[in-house]
Amino acid sequence: MDWVLLLIEEMPITLHSSAHFLSLIVPAYCQEETIVKNIRQLRNVLSEIRYNYEIIVVVDGMVDDTFEKLRQAKIPKTTILSYEKNRGKAYAVRFGMKQAKGDYIMFIDSGMEIDPNGISMLMEHMEWYDADIIVGSKRHPASLVGYTIPRKILSYGYYYFVKSLFGISVKDTQAGIKIFKRSVLEGILPRLVEKRFAGDLEMLVVANSMGFRRIYEAPIKLNYELSKLSSAATWNSIYFIFADTLAIFYRLHFLHYYSQAHQRFVEPREVYKFATK
User: Fold this and answer.
1) What are phi and psi of 272, to 5 degrees?
2) I need a labelling partner for 186 at 20 to 30 A (CA). Which of 3, 261, 265, 277 fits?
3) Which of 138, 140, 130, 108 is nearest to 215 (CA)?
4) What domains are there in the chain, each with its CATH number?
5) Quick check: 120 and 202 in contact, CB under 8 A?
6) What does residue 115 show for φ and ψ, rounded to 5 degrees?
7) What is the pLDDT of residues 6-34, one digit of tens each?
8) Measured between alpha carbons, how far is 245 from 31 in angstroms, rounded to an integer?
């Protein structure tokens, strides 16, 4: 058996498979106090997956020191992008996706309410189902979710609202972690309009309308316990989510806007960029 042992010893150790390349988009806004810790946590998770990767952090507006804190941290395999004016989460995600190199493109919210260890779970679901999109879902039977009663009531109310309007099978459109095949994004991105509150839903609605039906849900671990529904800004966001959802319905069924590609995405005039290998 000596020859077997020798063969094993001489085989190169490959930490990452070349089968896929993951681009992880992280939208961030006013997070100068936590962003470096959060991105380092994401990189630690990604260093354990079997695919090579890049992290693209899109700082949604130069309104604080989020960009500068990340630039000084020089986190490997991380590209930081920003622009002057705050434009909304959906815009930031789409902007990051347009810069992505991967054949798998994922986004995750930067606040770490969603446990980043679930990234590998979504990727394994992507492979297992040969999926077009995998959606992290609070309502997956295996999910571990901590959130307040008011949030739970609003979440279920929005689910039934979306189901009645669009009939899509996904039970949770709003959890901030999703992964897409590049070919799907190449089809849907030129059709998207939403910049702020309902961008996640619009992606799924447009993908479904284009015939990308292999959309499945994966479990996540999520903790919203520390985030309360008390501020006026939060209630304004809830109002605009419902308003933007109705706008998606109108564009889909009355204007038939999503039936063809458009070139409406307006690039920022000035982009700040810093990349670390």
Assistant:
1) -95, 130
2) 277
3) 130
4) 18-258 (3.90.550.10)
5) no
6) -65, 120
7) 222 333 334 566 689 999 999 999 999 99
8) 27
